[in-house]
Design a protein that fits this description.
85 residues
């Protein structure tokens, strides 16, 4: 369940889907190909769906990415083409 912004430095509470940006990760894992949410005792590949949310303020300057071995992390958002710095 979403409760706050995925940016660890932000304390904004999740209240509405229309406020901010929602991210969805569909992940698959298997003993030979561990991934996000890997369950080492699973006998067949598992699918995990995870949701993360960035508040409006954080979504303006950052995005979320997945780093293997770490999980979901924030990173600076790429500047839109033609956007002024």
């Amino acid at each position: 369940m979403l409760s706050k912004c995925a940016n660890p430095q932000c304390s904004s509470a999740f209240l509405h889907l229309s406020d901010g940006k929602l991210f969805r990760w569909d992940t698959h894992s298997s003993p030979g190909n561990p991934g996000f949410g890997f369950e080492p005792t699973a006998k067949k590949p598992a699918q995990h769906i995870e949701f993360f949310w960035l508040c409006n303020g954080c979504a303006r300057t950052m995005t979320l990415t997945f780093q293997r071995g770490v999980g979901v992390v924030t990173k600076p958002a790429p500047l839109a083409r033609g956007a002024a710095p």
